[in-house]
Design brief:
- This protein is of the alpha+beta class and about 60 residues long.
- The chain has a single domain, classed as Arc Repressor Mutant, subunit A (Orthogonal Bundle).
- Helix content is about 50%, strand content about 15%.
- It contains 3 helices and 3 strands; from the N terminus they run H-E-H-H-E-E.
- Strands 1-3-2 form a 3-stranded antiparallel beta sheet.
- A hairpin with a 4-residue loop joins strand 2 and strand 3.
- The longest helix has 13 residues.
- The chain starts with a helix and ends with a strand.
């Protein structure tokens, strides 16, 4: 599971702006949007990414 968090975070870091879970999920061959959303929400709870009021995520730094 740590690899999944790292992979999602790396894709988010490379995205040019805030991204939805669906946008990030499309960057993987077999990643359900629901799973990516859960990973992103966990990262947001831990303060490693930001989540806006439209459920879009961006780098926390």
């Amino acid at each position: 599971m740590p690899d999944q968090f790292q992979a999602v975070r790396e894709q988010l870091d490379q995205h040019p702006g805030p991204a939805s879970a669906e946008q990030i999920a499309r960057l993987f061959k077999r990643a359900p949007t629901k799973k990516v959303a859960e990973l992103l929400q966990t990262l947001a709870t831990l303060g490693q990414v930001r989540q806006d009021d439209r459920d879009r995520f961006s780098n926390a730094s």
